[in-house]
Design brief:
The protein is an alpha+beta fold and 67 residues long. It contains two helices and two strands, in the order E-H-E-H. It has helices spanning 22-35, 51-65; strands at 2-6, 41-45. Strands 1-2 form a two-stranded parallel ribbon. Helix 1 links the parallel strand 1 and strand 2. The radius of gyration is 13 Å and the shape is flat.
Amino acid sequence: FHLDVGTLEENSFRDLKGRPSALAGNRRMYEALQAKGYKVHYTEFRGGHDYISWQGTLAEGLMALLK
């Protein structure tokens, strides 16, 4: 698995029901996958949920998965 998330996504996607942010959700998913024994490439980057941020991490993720 490859997961990446921006540290500026802390308040992104928080809805009126108080669901966790994208950052918190990705951290929990990473921990859950590791606990199940899956190999996970996880990265947090300084950025938000936008095209500029994921353009660089998309290539990094593909390289990690295709090694």
